[in-house]
Amino acid sequence: MRIIGLCTMVLFLVSGEALGREGDPLEALVESAGRDPLKLVQVGDLFVEAKRLKEAKKLYREAERRGEKHGEAKLGAARIRMARGQFSQVKHACRLITQEYPKRGVGEVCSGWFWLSKGRSARALDDFKKVVKKGDVARGKTGLGEALRKQGNFKEAIAAYGDAIESGAGYRAFLGRGLAEEASGNKKAALASLKKSVEMEPGSCLAHYHYGRLLNMGAEAARHLEMALKMRPSWPEAGMVLGKLYLELGQHEKAIGVFQATLSGESGRGEAYFGLGRAYFGVGKKEEAQEALKKTVELIPNHKAAFLLMADIHLAAGNNEGVVEALEQARRVAPGDVNVYVKSGEAFFRMGRHTSARSLLSQAISMNSKHSRAHVLLGHIACQRHLYDTGKEYYKSALKGDMVGLNAKEIEKYTRECRSKKKK
User: Fold this and answer.
1) Count of CB atoms situated within 10 Å of the CB of 424
2) Do 294 and 280 form a contact (C-beta atoms < 8 A)?
3) What is the pLDDT of residue 12?
């Protein structure tokens, strides 16, 4: 369902500097809803989406008190029970709604979402088809799209969402279509649909989250993820995405705050500690970074990236023994990962331990002969040992490899410089 006449204040909050202000976007919608029972229900649905169930319950009760007569408030109450996992109560509630409003599709909408929450998409399809037959095409087709998407039938799901949109469906249809388009590999179309979802309903934390997540770069993505977390503060998935984005933007202090907040949740704590370690290292707090990484590997013992970052921290501190130990742990947990061997070889090269570096990089090339970075590092070692022809051959091999993260002009420069510096 789409909220009509409630979006102005949230649009203001989403834009520009207003994002950083205190205040809750959803509370702004509550004030805008006033005494209108249908609008109160619609705002209640957004609170359910944000997992703020106590506030949603108050809104649904207020809507009933103010005379909501179409079963929408009762449907909202059933959604709260779904979110709490009270499935036996939900099934009974949906049946009662169907009996009380037999000519409307609201009871079948309830049942359809109940079956989706139970992972029974085939049963959900039956109920949503009944919704369409009863004339609520927008919600029925949106539900069909959801069920088809859950089944992995993305082409038909996209078509169903399209039918829903043509019938006047709101942001949920655009949101679902965007997720189906993303799953089918069409990122451009997905971004367009998700952006439309946000524009239609600025009060949807899911719309902001998925649009920001898929954008995945820059200030605009951060802005939408920030808005999602304003509406749903305890959201580990959104916190992780935003924290990583802050790291990419070089905003390490902001990343620290987000990862620390994410640690209050029950899930994703290991990755949150890893993000925190990266952020602390980024601001030069090496001891705090190491503590965070220790907690990462306590929770996720095979976290190779944590061991590699530990090696970087020890290398920056001049602790060669710590570097060696961390790299050994990384190779232990990821014995078949070529990049771990390349990273290890590079660290030994930087420590001036060329024999060990050559051994590790040669193993990397035996795993992947096209790994350009490994060839470049071997070229550096050969040239430093005055084996100029050998070094040039390595650089030549690098240019024929995958060239991931490398620049051909830089390698050509290395080749020219790989020669005796003595004057003739």
Assistant:
1) 3
2) no
3) 37
In the numeric block, which tokens belong to residue 176? Answer: 């679902």
Q: Residue 76 carries which DSSP code?
A: H
Averages of pLDDT over runs of 10 residues in the chain (424 residues) are 42 36 77 92 96 96 92 96 93 94 94 95 96 96 97 97 96 98 97 98 97 95 96 92 96 96 81 96 96 96 97 95 97 96 97 96 97 98 96 97 96 95 62
Pick the CATH number of 336-424 from 1.10.340.30, 1.25.40.10, 2.40.10.120, 1.10.760.10: 1.25.40.10
Which amino acid does the sequence have at 164?
A
pLDDT on residue 246: 97
The residue behind tokens 């109920």 is: 127
103 touches 134 (CB < 8 A): yes
* Tokens 């071997």 -> residue: 378
Q: How far apart are CA 212 and CA 58, in angstroms?
A: 30
303: nearest Cα among 317, 313, 293, 312? 293
Residues 6+ apart with CB under 8 A from 204: 46, 49, 171, 175, 197, 198
> Burial level of 192, CB count in 10 A (0-12/13-18/19+)?
middle
pTM: 0.85
Domain ranges of the chain: 336-424
Look at the alpha carbons of 294, 299, 302, 304 in this order and tell me if their dihedral is positive or negative. negative
pLDDT of residue 275: 96
Spatial contact of 203 and 190, defined as CB atoms under 8 Å apart: no
**Residue 263: is it exposed, middle or buried by C-beta count within 10 angstroms (0-12/13-18/19+)?**
middle
Cα distances from 334 to residues 26, 197, 362, 377, in angstroms, run 45, 41, 17, 21
Using an 8 Å Cβ cutoff, are 290 and 313 in contact? yes
The token pair at 146 is 């959801």
∠ at Cα 37 (36, 42), nearest 5°? 100
